[in-house]
């Protein structure tokens, strides 16, 4: 019986078996990491082009428009490929794919920013004077002015739309210049929905996907989560930030700040799911993929890091241009990443059929080395068995 069992025992050395285990481990690591990113293109852009805060798809048209010089010192790209420009006392909307001007409107000298709603239906303009912060809402298709709201001097350069484009939030100080107020209104009519007084500055802001919650940073190094319906603070998250992003399902929140490490928070419980890096990373922006399983953070050290949203593990590190990364956006399919650091760059994720991308992975070279050692060890064992009969 013992002799019959020995017939099924591989007659290889322990060295060969150990190398085989290492080969299997490195092969599994190669399979797990088989998702390299490739830098596609970069284009120098004016520094005043505002951050991209939505999922982009028409990036080729934007590149063409910038190359033709039609975006001059002010611009923003809508989800359907329209660009807001400021030129010679006019604000105009130009179709990125064709370069055609669709409408024009006069602009005030203190025009600071323009924000498209995620559905492309509305565009909000911020006018900042010394003592007045004015928000003007226009219909993106026609340029029709829908409503206008004035508050005291601004507390932060931020206006946030809800993902469905129904709500818009903005900030300003009250006329006594003592209290900072967050206003939430209906985007189409300007009807007030919520007003909340912040203990410090109220920036940045982001509305949850279902429009029920609003998250905003404050001067006391906290992130407040507000109930839009009641105007009450339902959750407080410890840590300052200069960027806030909601996950697609609205359950978690990504915060990134200069002096605090980036973090992913469970909004329901207020607990920190993962810390991304350490307090020295100085992340300044972040973005969720549409699937919600990955987040990207932009850093002052000229790098973009892609993380697992579930575990907080760093999956990839991408080297941007020699400037701090100021804005990020995933494409809707998660295959491309837009990086803005003064240059507008596109990173493309390799598909498995792009076989040459494997050479950039450390796991590939480990697997190749273990495979060579394994073949050498098997050949030696076979020769030894042949000599001993």
Sum up the structure in keywords:
single chain, 389 residues, alpha+beta, 4-stranded antiparallel β-sheet, 4 helices, disordered N terminus
List the helices and strands and how they pair.
Layout: H1 2-6, H2 14-32, E1 37-44, H3 59-67, E2 75-77, E3 82-87, E4 90-95, E5 101-106, E6 111-116, E7 122-128, E8 133-139, E9 145-151, E10 159-161, E11 167-173, E12 180-186, E13 192-198, E14 205-207, E15 213-217, E16 222-227, E17 232-238, E18 243-246, E19 252-256, E20 262-266, E21 272-276, E22 283-288, E23 294-299, E24 303-308, E25 314-319, E26 327-330, E27 336-340, E28 343-349, H4 362-388
Antiparallel strand pairs: 1-28, 2-3, 3-4, 4-5, 6-7, 7-8, 8-9, 10-11, 11-12, 12-13, 14-15, 15-16, 16-17, 18-19, 19-20, 20-21, 22-23, 23-24, 24-25, 26-27, 27-28
């Amino acid at each position: 019986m013992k002799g019959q069992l020995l017939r099924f025992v591989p007659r290889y050395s322990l060295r060969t078996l150990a190398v085989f285990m290492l080969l299997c481990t490195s092969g599994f690591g190669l399979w797990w990491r088989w998702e390299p990113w490739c830098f596609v293109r970069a284009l120098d852009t004016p520094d005043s082009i505002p951050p991209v805060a939505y999922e982009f798809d028409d990036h080729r048209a934007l590149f063409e428009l910038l190359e033709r010089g039609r975006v001059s010192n002010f611009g923003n790209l809508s989800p359907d490929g329209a660009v807001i420009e400021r030129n010679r006392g006019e604000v105009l909307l130009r179709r990125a794919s064709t370069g055609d001007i669709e409408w024009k409107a006069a602009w005030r000298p203190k025009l600071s920013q323009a924000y498209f709603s995620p559905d492309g239906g509305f565009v909000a303009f911020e006018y900042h004077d010394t003592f007045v912060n004015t928000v003007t809402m226009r219909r993106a298709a026609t340029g029709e002015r829908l409503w206008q709201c004035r508050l005291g001097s601004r507390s932060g350069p931020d206006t946030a739309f809800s993902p469905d484009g129904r709500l818009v939030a903005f900030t300003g100080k009250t006329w006594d210049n003592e209290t900072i107020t967050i206003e939430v209104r209906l985007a189409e009519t300007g009807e007030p929905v919520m007003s909340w007084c912040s203990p410090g500055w109220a920036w940045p802001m982001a509305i949850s996907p279902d429009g029920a919650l609003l998250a905003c940073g404050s001067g006391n190094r906290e992130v407040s989560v507000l109930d839009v319906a009641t105007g009450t603070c339902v959750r407080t998250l410890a840590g300052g930030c200069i960027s806030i992003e909601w996950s697609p399902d609205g359950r978690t929140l990504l915060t990134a700040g200069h002096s605090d490490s980036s973090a992913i928070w469970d909004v329901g419980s207020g607990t920190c799911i993962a810390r991304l890096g350490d307090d020295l990373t100085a992340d300044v922006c972040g973005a969720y993929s549409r699937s919600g399983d990955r987040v990207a953070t932009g850093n002052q050290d000229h790098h973009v890091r892609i993380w697992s949203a579930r575990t907080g593990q760093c999956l990839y590190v991408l080297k941007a241009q020699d400037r701090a990364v100021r804005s990020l956006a995933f494409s809707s399919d998660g295959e491309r990443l837009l990086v803005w650091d003064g240059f507008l760059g596109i990173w493309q994720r390799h598909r498995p059929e792009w076989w040459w991308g494997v050479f950039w992975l450390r796991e590939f070279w480990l697997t190749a080395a273990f495979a060579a050692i394994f073949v050498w060890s098997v050949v030696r064992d076979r020769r030894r068995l042949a000599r001993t009969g």
